[in-house]
Design goal:
By secondary structure, the chain is of the alpha/beta class. 35% of the residues lie in helices and 24% in strands. Helix 1 packs parallel to helix 6. The structure holds 5-O-phosphono-beta-D-ribofuranosylamine. 5-O-phosphono-beta-D-ribofuranosylamine binds next to helix 1, strand 5 and helix 6.
Length: 213
Amino acid sequence: MTDAPLPIAILISGSGSNLQALIDASLRDELDCDITVVISDRHDVHGLKRAEAAGIPTAVVAWSEHKSRAEFTESICRTAEDHSARAMVLAGFMRILAPVAIERFPNAIINLHPALLPAFPGTHAVEMALEYGATLTGVTVHFVDEQVDHGPIIAQEALPVHVDDDADSLHARIQKVEHRLLPEVVAAFGRGDLTVEGRHVRWRQISLEETGS
Ligand code: GRF
């Protein structure tokens, strides 16, 4: 008997290329999760069309229609729960959730960040790495805690900054890594392979037997 895939909500704010990577992994049966809803904080973003094309229910929880971060977060959590989601994946979601989200989804909110945290947190990570003169940057996937871009790191991958990079060229290379790394992490989470011990995330070791070797 196989376990049912973990129901998850994906949160987006824009183009949704990372959402597409998750959908594609799911279509290949490699996500080990069931995307039960895609939630956007804005109307008319391309990511919603990607979800609709894949037949996934969508919801818009507009930031502008809420009085406070707490109310906005409450609506997001309720929408995810209404679709039976037991985890949330922030895939290019540009809003900060209030702490109540962590109470409702403890160690079950995953965020993607386009830099090697703790370097360059915030919304302009790619530009900041360039301006700083960093020769390496990368991608971080981490659990969300009460602080911004701070929770336990699940996976990181570095990539070089080229001398002739601008924000667009660097971001394009970062996104290639994101599109591979985020689905890998979400699948590991869906299989129950990740354990959080303080700031440390342990990946379950796969035995030779399981690999079929
Ligand atoms: C990603 O590069 C993510 O790291 C950043 O915003 C981008 C979203 O891209 N926070 P997309 O909407 O998944 O195409």
